[in-house]
Amino acid sequence: MADKNKPQDGKPQPEKRGGWLSRFAPGVRKIVTRRDTPDNLWVKDPDSGEMLFRADLETSLWVTPSGRHMRIGAKDRLRFTFDEGRYEQLPTPEVPEDPLKFSDGKPYRERLAAARKGTGARDAMAIGVGEIGGVPAVALVQDFKFMGGSLGMAAGEAFIAAARAAIERDCPLVCFTAAGGARMQEGALSLMQMARTTLAIQELKDAVLPYVVVLTDPTTGGVTASYAMLGDVHLAEPGALIGFAGPRVIETTIREKLPPGFQRAEYLQEKGMVDRVVPRGELPKVLADVLSILMGGRRKAA
Question: What is 257-279 written as a DSSP string?
């Protein structure tokens, strides 16, 4: 019996193509094929669960319709802060990597490499120099995306470099904080940065230069216990979590329910720990006013 699938005349059969659409109208297939959609075209609102168009979020400075001030990286922060988005980025000092040869199931060097690949930065701090409302200033930004903005040797050295850059340029220092605490992979060397950054702030005070802190979500741990709370003026973004230990840790320790909004920026403003809560879109103007007043007082003192 002849094989039904085998050609009877021995001649090669034409290669079968796709469906009828591709046979009769090859050009149409390219038109109707589903276009690839970028994975990051939409962003989910953490509060409402609504999907937000990324371009709209960028236009609104990453503030959602529900009012949530989403976390942003150092480049966006510097661009939003300085006049016309123009600034000079200063290099941050290099430090010894993995001095303790630390591993918590994954070597510290591998964690650093992953964070650098994900953010494009060497570490959690970035320094920019420019003008805010016409006032020359140095801005230091802590990026929570880089290992939770943790305070390690590199961050400590960057803070000192920013303070000394402000002194050299005779201008104020603005610090945007965002951290989960000290970097445990560096042990006591990380904790030492609390004292070192405090001394750098003292150098600013000796030079009679303003130091302004903008607390963003979240600012916790050793950062709150050091340079985040040593400013001449403390501003905060709406809804920012600010504290030393987290709310769940406190509730577990004292075995009591915390008040509504505890450790949030608005609650801390009410208690006098924060001077003013400022929406992101208004921050450049408020910073310009604060720096202008403080620098004017500084000139009179000089």
Answer: PPPTTTTBHHHHHHTTS-SEE--
Q: Where are the domains of the chain?
A: 42-71, 72-301
Share of the chain above pLDDT 70, in %: 85
How far apart CA 229 and CA 129 sit, in angstroms, is 22
Fold of the CATH domain 72-301: 2-enoyl-CoA Hydratase; Chain A, domain 1 (3.90.226)
Nearest CA-CA partner of 124 in 83, 169, 177, 84: 177
Average pLDDT over residues 243-263: 93
Q: How far apart are CA 18 and CA 262, in angstroms?
A: 62
Distance CA 24, CA 32 (A): 14
Q: Which residue is associated with the tokens 């994975």?
A: 39
How far is CA 228 from each of CA 102, 252, 258, 261, 274, rounded to the nearest angstrom? 27, 25, 23, 20, 11
- pLDDT, residue 10, reads 54
pTM of the full predicted structure? 0.85
The answer, yes or no, to whether residue 165 has pLDDT greater than 80, is: yes
